[in-house]
Amino acid sequence: KMYRTVKATSGRQIFQPLHTLRNAEKELLPGFHQFEWQPALKNVSTSWDVGIIDGLSGWTTSVDDVPAETIGRRFRYDVALVSALKDLEEDIMEGLRERGLDDSACTSGFTVVIKESCDGMGDVSEKHGSGPAVPEKAVRFSFTIMSIYIRLDEEEDAVTIFQEQKPNSELSCRPLCLMFVDESDHETLTGILGPVVAERKAMLDSRLILTIGGMQRSFRFFFRGTGYDEKMVRELEGLEASGSTYVCTLCDSTRAEASENMVLHSITRSHGENLQRYEIWRTNPFSESADELRDRVKGVSAKPFMETQPTLDALHCDIGNATE
């Protein structure tokens, strides 16, 4: 897709010297386009004219300057979102035209729904070679723009102007962060993805001002963490692994209870409650034995760090299907 875009924007064939191609590609990399946040993002660095960020040792200026011991590389979240929106510029304008909307009247009220995904990539070790020693596992965090809609007046229904037709295709899935980490290494994962979560949180309270179709328009973002598998959800929520007695990521049922009661299942706990339970697990205020303590916190064993939406999780879906 990238090369197709390079050709489309430049109108030239791509069989060219590498440096020409490199320059054309720079437009497609986060950090190329001007944008602004209103109000400015809190707790997010203001320097944004960068290629890729190194998760350990701060900002680097070029895509190529990677110290050998780097274990995580990422784009800044807001910069990557800007790049993704600019990539969809033609689709957005086309969507406005198709809905018969006057594009000069549509300068604010855009809402963008983002699906976030994060998963382990398995074994990525070098089979033979003398590179730096890195963990054999990698994790990739990415996002997909699922839809963009606009609400012109408060009363009016929202009009969808862009809907991703292939939301599970690798063409619409944009990488944000790659790390050499095992997905069950909770501490390292928290250390690298912590700033991503902080940036995402900051963006919820702000509006992005970006030029699309020659006019400045304002966008707000909603994030849905629906691209995580159960293992990753448990990891991010600080729960015991999937072999736990407590089968469900959103309620307190045990395996025995779930097998006896296929109907009366409901979502009973929130991210905040998991945090409180982690504190109980950590401090053991009632001086209980390990088994009693575990029964009290119902499978919360690490500190959750990423608030996931309380949507139906895999187990409840299975129970629902079985009931059907």
UniProtKB/TrEMBL annotation:
Residues 36-108 form the V(D)J recombination-activating protein 1 pre-RNase H domain. Residues 1-35 form the V(D)J recombination-activating protein 1 DNA-binding domain. InterPro entries: RAG1, RAG1_DNA-bd, RAG1_pre-RNase_H, RAG1_RNase_H, RAG1_ZnC2. GO terms for cellular component: DNA recombinase complex; endodeoxyribonuclease complex; nucleus. Residues 112-244 form the V(D)J recombination-activating protein 1 RNase H domain. Residues 246-308 form the V(D)J recombination-activating protein 1 ZnC2 domain. One of its GO terms (biological process) is chromatin organization. It comes from the Eukaryota. One of its GO terms (molecular function) is zinc ion binding. This is Recombination activating protein 1. It comes from Cobitis ruppelli. The gene is RAG1.
